């Protein structure tokens, strides 16, 4: 297994400002290094023992500049090692489903870990949130899809024995509750899957665990690649798999000698399937099939000059590469668009197997099938809060635990998420007009925890012209003293961009950053949050950054209805999900058929974002009524039936 050393610093990427973090190393000199392992962050990490009801309280209350919908929770806080799957699905009728890796308690080893699930109906109402898993066995890393008949499936891996479990429901909105083992491969242990489906055909990619006990064979070597990414296919809802565990053409030791956990993504539309694989010593490779996975064409999306890397190669020019967090999406013409977190590496010594990686790099790379040109579409400079054109990060933000899980001298905590860059985990969506949206995770300047690490927010960039130009990055979470990370979007947008992410009380994760001696990141209950953001607000740049807008400022914004009220017809109360473009108040007036106001109420002190407004219809005679929602100078009206 190759070794990797991490440089405490970052470089600018082709003119794009990156954070000047710590001391910038001199490429020809001997940088200050902190030793870590090869970059693999294993699923079954043995964490500090913690039990149900540990009751540990950390940090102060977060400051929200935007409001979000709570849909679930988890004590297990590592949603992926590298690339973020698309775990949020927009149904054809406007309903939304979401899944995540969950654990309902903090027992040692998370024995109840599995797939969380929630569903929002067409009227905007989510099921009661919960943190329990849907499976009967311990799983992780779920994938969510919708079959042709509207029923859903979730596929998660079973790390102990290898392979996956598929769970199905009988109708959308019910918790998938029948799980079946699939894609076992003795004696190997395939895990870390990604799934995409078109109708009843499921396409899967995955790798192999190499966290083996001595003498145990868990990861194969194929075509010179240790623990490679492989592909499987089912045409009957996952009941049988006619293609299993195959290597894609041109994926061999001429480009890389190591596969990786979660360093890949997949999408499909009709019979077209696209797969992308990334690694900071390999570059970015894509494959496309137009016949549902039978034949493939390979594309070199972004080359790495020193691939395949070996310890005898010097890299004194700090080549630009990727950090293993990658995504791919198909537009309506079935052209692929590829995104990745930008990375920078260095090797000044051929006497050992180590190389250096710059964890403070802040940029997102992009390529599409039509132009086949690499672009950089986001920069940390956009998140500058001090006016110096740099998103400056504290040392703890890009530091990791040292030997024996110790915190480096002079730091109170560490918050680097595996061996990924500071700006990481692109996740893309596209709407019916081929506007493209890409969210990503980035630490926020001046937003520091009590132990001195920057909290993360979720940023977004967009393109109105098929990826040729990109708008200025915006901040869609806007919460101080909370870690908003592991963001994913529904691949389709329907006038609203549907987003889900995990919110933590501390920067970093318990699984990767907690020192057993210091207890700097104890297990806490993490929130799983959701937003439905109007694409018009994104495309017009109205989301912005919002450094400190308060709810008592003049209300000049708009209120937008996300869904029709529910229940409808109503007796008593009904709810309507709205989006508020600016913080302020919302007045609700209910009028009868003559236009007379029969009910009026005011909801005050709301942040920008999603809110569930409750309308009181009690005491009203049966009939059709109009309810109006007013925010600032804007009013929007809908009808409802009282029974």
General description of the model:
The protein is mainly beta and 643 residues long. The protein has two domains: 522 residues, 6 Propeller (Neuraminidase), CATH 2.120.10; 84 residues, Immunoglobulin-like (Sandwich). 1% of the residues lie in helices and 42% in strands. It has two helices and 43 strands. The strands form eleven sheets. Strands 1, 2, 23, 24, 25, 26 and 27 form a seven-stranded mixed beta sheet that branches. A hairpin with a 5-residue loop joins strand 6 and strand 7. It is globular.
Which fold does the CATH topology of the largest domain refer to? Neuraminidase
SSE-based structural type: mainly beta
The CATH architecture name of the largest domain reads: 6 Propeller
Number of helices: 2
Global geometry: globular
Q: How much strand?
A: 35-45%
Low-confidence stretches: 8-60
Tell me the total number of β-strands: 43
Q: In percent, how helical is the residue content?
A: under 10%
Through-space gap between termini: 68 Å
Give the integer mean of the pLDDT values. Answer: 88
CATH class of the largest domain: Mainly Beta
Estimated radius of gyration? 24 Å
Described by strand count, sense and barrel closure, the largest sheet is: 7 strands, mixed
Tally of domains: 2
